[in-house]
Design brief:
The protein is α+β, with helices and mostly antiparallel strands and about 350 residues long. About 20% of the residues lie in helices and about 30% in strands.
């Protein structure tokens, strides 16, 4: 009986060991299968050589039409690149568009939209490039600005500029937008209509430094108008503060009095701050229009800074300017090299006696 019992125990152990061996073999087989599937699923491929992109301004007018061309990729020898385009809104185009070059017309609506270019080639990872587009629509986009009644027409391009009397001078009430020099914000001509263009000091003045009331160089300004001198700015300060301020100083307070409570697509150029009170004094309409750096390569400061040239070079031959910043009421003074930063220009004209 004891021998039989031992035989039964041995049989149970052998059965158990056989079960474990079979399970281990199954598990190993399963793991090998999963590993093989994973290798197939995550098989690496090369990228299409190059960097996909297309050119389009960041800000565009509604109903404007653009031809977009996908560029930057080199077609591999063993595959053909196919290009297609998608958008975040059916208002721009409803279906996927195929081709390296397409033509699109902006919708008659405000907002921010995205256009994406895609490139695919058999045996390669797809490449994509997306660009955000802000649609502008005249007075619906730029709100809070009322143009003064006194205006002049630039005979070079027939653009109309309002101006106002401040001290002994007439001053433009918006930044110059002459396209014969300079660049608009983010290379977007639609923004030039609102914030004007940026010019290096060299471009703004033609490289000519000047001094004296109303004696600045014409530079980029229309005929009969000039880029303001240090003396022009000091005359401006007397009208603003009631007493003349030296140009080469930071003027305490008052900058917010010149600012205007205007907005671009619902976003204020000067964000609300209880310490600042935009009054648009003189109708001068100071906007936080930003600036450009590195000879128009980089654009900064939109809705945070406002900067304007003086045509009078500093003693060190640096260019001088006046500027404002968000949440600060001082009207600051600064200098920089003549050919790196690009700022706004307000043209002036000496009043006739």
């Amino acid at each position: 009986m004891k021998i039989c019992a031992n035989l039964r125990i041995m049989r149970k152990k052998n059965t158990y060991l056989m079960f474990l061996a079979a399970f281990a073999a199954f598990a190993m087989c399963l793991c090998n299968s999963c590993s093989k599937d994973d290798d197939e699923e995550f098989e690496t491929k090369p990228y299409i050589p190059g960097s996909l992109s297309f050119l389009m301004p960041d800000y565009v007018d509604t109903m404007s039409t653009y031809t977009l061309e996908a560029k930057g990729l080199t077609e591999p020898q063993d595959a053909r690149i196919q290009y297609f385009w998608t958008t975040s809104s059916y208002k721009i185009f409803k279906d996927t568009l195929w081709g390296q070059t397409i033509e699109v017309t902006m919708p008659d609506t405000l907002g921010v939209f995205v256009i994406t270019a895609h490139a695919k080639a058999e045996g390669y990872y797809n490449s994509t490039y997306s660009h955000n587009i802000n649609l502008l629509k005249g007075d619906q986009s730029f709100t809070g600005y009322e143009q003064p009644q006194t205006t002049m027409t630039d005979s070079r391009d027939d653009k109309i500029y309002a101006y106002t009397e401040i001290g002994h001078l007439f001053w433009f009430t918006r930044n110059l937008d002459w396209e014969g020099a300079g660049h608009p914000y983010a290379e977007s001509p639609a923004m030039g209509k609102i914030t004007g263009r940026y010019y290096t000091w060299e471009d703004a003045t033609g490289g000519e430094s000047a001094s004296g009331l109303g004696q600045g160089p014409q530079g980029v300004c229309p005929e009969g108008w000039s880029v303001p001198t240090n003396e022009d700015w000091e005359d401006f300060s007397e009208a603003l503060y009631g007493e003349r301020q030296k140009f080469h100083t930071n003027w305490k307070g008052g900058a917010d009095k010149l600012q205007i409570n205007a907005a671009l697509n619902g976003t204020n150029f000067w964000p609300y701050d209880p310490a600042c009170n935009p009054e648009n004094k003189f109708g001068w309409a100071a906007l936080a229009a930003g600036y450009a750096q590195d000879r128009y390569l980089h654009y900064k400061g939109m809705q945070s800074k406002a900067m304007w040239w003086s045509s009078t070079l500093d003693e060190s031959k640096d260019a001088a300017f006046r500027h404002m910043e968000i949440r600060k009421t001082d009207f600051f003074f600064g200098t920089c090299a003549t050919n790196t930063m690009a700022l706004s220009v307000r043209c002036v004209q000496l009043k006739k006696n």
